[in-house]
Amino acid sequence: MNKSKNCLAIAALLFAASAPVLAGNWEICDLQVEVRDKQTDRHQLQTRVIESQAQAQAECPQAGTALSFRPETVDYQSELPRRQWPKPGTTVTVRYRYLDGECKDRGPCRIQHYSPVLR
Questions:
Q1: 51 beta partners
Q2: By CB distance 3.0 to 4.6 Å, which of 25, 43, 65, 70 could disulfide with 61?
Q3: pLDDT computed for residue 33 by the predictor
């Protein structure tokens, strides 16, 4: 029985090694943004990029770009409560992460996350 289990394990490893990789790498940008407004009708933070710094080959928004997003926790698992959103007129660092891939029923898409960085 040990031989059959070993053969199954080896076969599974070979199959996994030959399977195409579906996930990519997260690209990361650290952005300095000025908070413009909290939109109550769309529940998004309105910002303008002051400075951007790419990690590796990330495509970062350039200075002057307007961004609208819902701020998320540092671990990107949930949205920050609105009372914790940065106030209009403040400048904050935001970690922007994205992953390009194929989305079900939509084709090519970009998954994006924005999280204020506390320093």
A1: 32
A2: 65
A3: 97
Tokens at 62, concatenated: 């350039």
Whole-angstrom Cα distance, residue 102 to residue 108?
4
75: tokens are 């671990």
Identify the segments of the chain with pLDDT beneath 70.
1-24, 38-42, 119
Q: How far apart are CA 103 and CA 106, in angstroms?
A: 5
Range of the domain at 90: 23-116
Residue 12, in any domain of the structure: no
